[in-house]
């Protein structure tokens, strides 16, 4: 049985986690999935240059997709914690580190790990 390259494994895991969050927000349309694929291609080069950064790939792909969605469609994912005031997006923390989470900076709380937005948001959509 062939072993999966750890770098490829990290990239596949990052793709799956971000797709799970997109699906939880009902925004996993074909053009949005293409944004994920574009990020994975770019991050493949990055992680090949710095293999020790493999554990950071999920957070980086999530940030890449969030930035691309902002440019094309609007903020995502919207914060499910703050019920009042202007809608705002969650942010990924740490920006470059292991165990990335979606965080609301206004409330100062971790909302969910990247890949687990579904239970935290109850099927939130973007705006």
Count of discrete structural domains: 1
**How many alpha or pi helices?**
4
- Sketch the major β-sheet: 3 strands, antiparallel
Overall number of strands: 3
Helix content percent band: 40-55%
The secondary-structure element order is HHHEEEH
Q: Compute the CA-based radius of gyration.
A: 14 Å
Could you characterize the architecture of this molecule?
This protein is mainly alpha-helical and 127 residues long. 47% of the residues lie in helices and 9% in strands. It has a three-stranded antiparallel sheet. Helix 1 (6-24) runs antiparallel to helix 2 (30-49), helix 1 packs across helix 3 and helix 2 (30-49) crosses helix 3 (57-72).
Task: Put the structure in a nutshell.
The chain is 47% helix and 9% strand. It contains four helices and three strands, in the order H-H-H-E-E-E-H.
């Amino acid at each position: 049985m062939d072993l999966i390259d750890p770098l490829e494994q990290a990239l596949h895991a990052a793709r799956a986690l971000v797709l799970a969050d997109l699906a939880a927000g009902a925004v996993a349309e074909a053009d949005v999935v293409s944004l994920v694929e574009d990020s994975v291609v770019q991050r493949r080069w990055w992680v090949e240059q710095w293999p020790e950064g493999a554990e950071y790939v999920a957070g980086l792909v999530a940030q890449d997709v969030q930035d691309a969605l902002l440019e094309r469609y609007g903020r995502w994912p919207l914060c499910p914690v703050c019920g009042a005031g202007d809608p705002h997006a969650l942010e990924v923390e740490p920006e470059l580190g292991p165990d990335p989470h979606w965080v609301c900076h206004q409330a100062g709380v971790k909302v969910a790990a990247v890949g687990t937005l579904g239970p935290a948001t109850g099927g939130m959509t973007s705006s």
